[in-house]
Every structure is written in structure tokens, then in C-alpha cells.
């Protein structure tokens, strides 16, 4: 791994190198479910806390607020890593993908993004990917990737297109660890990224006895234990918080390491199933695949 500039109190946020040589911070800040009217302040606070990677999406409805925070931060653009996502596109997917990207870029107020992800594995994914390849070749996205792709769909996309996705952002947390999926991604040169690293608190994650005991052994919170566990696995994560003290806490995970025994105890928490929903479920395929966004 390479290193990024120091965050708070001397903490160094490590990075991973993607399959095209682009460095990505291993910890970033996500804005899913942050209301647009709160997003500018939240992202401003996150940047002040030391985050340099911000993850948004067209579907979140807060790209404009993210852009305002970025552009008023005074942080040089080259120090930031900005991700946004393409929502499911109608035919012709290639034309619509480029239009959707241009809308996102305008809302963000940027001349490029660092990572552009296909948000869902539905409809004409190959047409969408061809357009994303053109966006990347044109220098408007430094890297392109996907989100919520199970191994079969990921391999199909890789084997029938020129550019291998740099990232696959999937649900990953102690109760759904995706170790076999990560192994396949590693073999194919795809970086795994976690959404929902805290499982949105489900299964009583923040008071879980195993995670709490491990945290106590290091003088760390459960959230810090989970993020440290992901970092040690080489999983990129984008925790979200609207509280400044929690933002700082979530970055403060580079001064300790979990033991092999502690890692094994966390491994035993894996249920092998989503705590939210399965993207392969026919009902969810219909619901997400037919959902439309408005500009």
C-alpha cells in the first residue's frame, strides 16, 4: 500500500492501488441517506476531519451539495478522490449513460471524477459499460467500476469488455463478509469496496459482545474494530456519520492491529447472507431495475 497525506493527530490514511495504477484511500466518507439540505455541512465537516475520499451517487440526490462542499473547502483537487454512481439506464444505454454522467459532473461542479461506478447490475449493463469505458478513455473518470455485482455478473462483464472494473462496491460487514467474493475479485484484479460497513447497526452490531470485547482489549470502539478489520483485509470502506466526533473516530484506526485470534472470532460472525436484501431476488430486480431518477 501507498500512503496519503496525514489526517488528524498524525493519523495516516493508507491507500490501495487500483488495477490501472490510480491510488484510492482505503477509508472514505459516504453520504448515502444524508438529506441534501444537510450534505454540504456534513461533507465540509468530513473534509475538515481529514477525509479525502467522498462517495456519492446520482440516486442519493445530494451531488450538488457535495460539490459545493468540495469547491468551498480550499483543498486542492488533486488531493481529493471523488466517487459518484450511474443509475440504471433505459435503451439506448450508451447515449443515456453519457447524458447521466454529464448531469452528475455538472451537479458536482467538477471537470472529472476519480471513480465512476455502475450502481446496479440491471438492464443493459454492457451498453452502460461501453459508455463508461469511453468516459474513462476521455479522461473524465480516472477509474470506472461497478456496485452490487455478484461474481457471475462481474465475470460476465469482465470477459466481454475491454476494461476490467477497478472496483466492485458491495455490502460487506462482519455479518456478511464476502471472503470468497473478495478472493475472486482479487484474482480478476478488482478492488472490493464495502458499503454498509456497520450493517446500519443491524444484529445489534454496536453492542455485539464479541466486537465489544475486542474493542475493549484495544481501547477502541466497535466501529473502530470493524473498520480496522476491513482495513486489514484490504477492503475499502466508506463509513457515514453526521457527528463530527464520530467522523474523527472512524479515521483513527491506523494505530492498532487485530490479532489472528481476534480476526478468527470476527470471521465466526459471518452468516453468508445479506442483512438487507439480495440483488439476485426477482422482486428486487424488478423494483430497482424499473426505478427512474429525475434530474
Automatic annotation (TrEMBL):
Q: Which residue range or ranges hold the NADP-dependent oxidoreductase domain?
A: 33-270
| CDD domains attached to this UniProt entry | AKR_AKR5F1 (cd19133)
InterPro entries from the UniProt entry? AKR (IPR020471), Aldo/ket_reductase_CS (IPR018170), NAD(P)_OxRdtase_dom_sf (IPR036812), NADP_OxRdtase_dom (IPR023210)
Identify the domain of life.
Bacteria
List the keywords (alphabetical). NADP, Oxidoreductase
- Which Pfam families has this protein been placed in? Aldo_ket_red
Q: What is this protein called?
A: 2,5-diketo-D-gluconate reductase A
